[in-house]
Write a structure and sequence with these properties.
The protein is α/β, with parallel strands linked by helices and 217 residues long. The protein has one domain: P-loop containing nucleotide triphosphate hydrolases (Rossmann fold), CATH 3.40.50.300. The protein is 54% helix and 12% strand. The chain contains 9 helices and 5 strands, in the order E-H-E-H-H-H-H-E-H-E-H-H-E-H. Strands 2-3-1-4-5 form a 5-stranded parallel sheet, with helices on both faces.
């Protein structure tokens, strides 16, 4: 396996932007695993299925083309809520494990962000970062993002959604959201993106140095 950087954390913590910037800095492909769940959720809705019915979600996951996940629709509030509901189904997560692990096996490595990358998908990743921030800071970021997309957005409602998603993601039976024991914690509450990226890159450089010094290389 090449050099894999696992970037986990809750919604709107900044992990996606950090992962993208790390990929650019190290010349590695980047996978936003959250987009996979958003795509499944939107497909279930489009097909008239039920997000809380596992069979409907598995059916959508089995027929999706994950090569094309671009578009503003994937960044909407509805897509985020659908993704969180879809992700609780163990069978859905099972359908995506192989795809994500194959991505991680690419040479010379990869950057993958999500909620269970360092704990389930690539537990032996050389570099693991758990990005977090206060619920209030994350709600503010999400509020500004939605306004930028032209959506009407109520801060208090978004804050309630953030807390609800955190609780759902942390309590689910299949791969609950939590930091890997060997992940470096990065709190971005009071950091702008440049400062957060600098901190993330220092974590990765430390991981690279440890790997080079280890007997296995």
């Amino acid at each position: 396996m090449g050099f894999v950087i696992a970037v986990d954390g809750p919604a709107a913590s900044g992990k996606g932007t950090i992962a993208s910037k790390l990929g650019a800095a190290y010349g590695l492909p980047v996978l936003d695993s959250g987009l996979l769940y958003r795509a499944i959720g939107l497909a279930v809705i489009d097909e008239g299925g039920d997000l809380d019915v596992e069979a409907d979600c598995v059916r959508a996951a089995s027929s999706l083309d994950f090569a094309n996940l671009n578009g503003e629709r994937f960044r909407t509030r509805a897509a985020g809520e659908a993704a969180s509901r879809v992700a609780v189904h163990p069978a859905v997560r099972e359908t995506l494990i192989a795809f994500q692990r194959d991505f991680a096996r690419r040479e010379p490595g990869a950057v993958i962000d999500g909620r269970d990358i360092g704990t389930v998908i690539v537990p032996d990743a050389p570099a693991k970062i758990y990005v977090t921030a206060s619920a209030e800071a994350r709600a503010t970021r999400r509020w500004l993002q939605l306004l930028g997309l032209g959506e009407s957005a109520d801060y208090e409602a978004i804050l309630a959604d953030v807390r609800k998603r955190d609780a759902r993601d942390a309590a689910r039976a299949a791969a609950p959201m939590r930091p890997a024991e060997d992940a470096a914690l990065l709190d971005t509450t009071d950091l702008d993106i440049d400062a957060a990226f600098d901190a993330a890159r220092r974590i990765v450089e430390d991981a690279r140095a440890r790997r080079e010094q280890s007997p296995k290389g």
